[in-house]
Design brief:
alpha/beta; Rossmann fold; single chain; 193 residues; globular; seven-stranded mixed beta sheet
């Protein structure tokens, strides 16, 4: 949490998420990754959680590290490097659908670890998990640097590893947010993610 606070990746205020919900906290993870040393510390920390899992450690280095979104690509590269995994892939949204841009076939992808910078609702990770299943790739691990407390703790029986679990209270309306104990007189800010 210290790195996230120091770099401004963790922010306090009044934030309106794309869903319309209000919160007093927001994570802008790329700010922590501006500095290589921070990126390395966070990625190595997450990779150590994976390395402790026998099902993952026994398959290294023949593992694919996959990011469900552009925001997780830096995490995927860092985790791949720390684990000395052989492959890296990422999914992107195109025409409203998550897909792999690479020309991938079933035999190309090693057992996969899906990683992201932050796990909010779990939708992107679940969609990436489903994409892996579609091409016949086994998912052996899932993880994020930060996981919201109300997000999934597992995907299809695969547990989610995270460096930080954070309780973000979301409020349906501005009035509910103002009535909360974390409200303040700060200017509201609409956020993209």
């Amino acid at each position: 949490m210290q790195i996230l606070t120091k770099t401004g990746a963790y922010r306090k205020g009044h934030f309106i998420y794309p869903s319309g919900k209000h919160a007093s906290h927001y994570f802008q993870m790329p700010l922590a990754f501006r500095y290589y040393d921070n990126a390395r510390i966070l990625s190595v920390g997450l990779s150590r959680l994976f390395r402790m899992e026998k099902t993952i450690a026994s398959q290294l280095p023949k593992v694919s590290v996959i990011s469900p979104s552009p925001g997780g690509i830096m995490v995927a590269f860092g985790v791949r490097e720390a684990l000395t995994a052989e492959q890296i892939y990422w999914a992107e949204m195109e025409d409203g659908k998550r897909q792999f841009r690479q020309y991938m076939s079933e035999s190309d992808v090693h057992p996969a670890i899906i990683v992201d910078d932050i796990l909010r609702s779990g939708r992107a990770m679940q969609e990436t998990f489903d994409l892996c299943k579609e091409i016949g790739a086994e998912v052996i691990g899932c993880g994020a640097l930060v996981r919201f407390e109300d997000s999934p703790t597992e995907f299809n029986g695969v547990p989610v590893e995270s460096l930080l679990t954070f309780d973000v209270n979301f409020y349906q309306t501005e009035e509910e947010w103002k009535a909360s104990r974390s409200a303040s007189d700060v200017h509201e800010e609409k956020v993209r993610f």
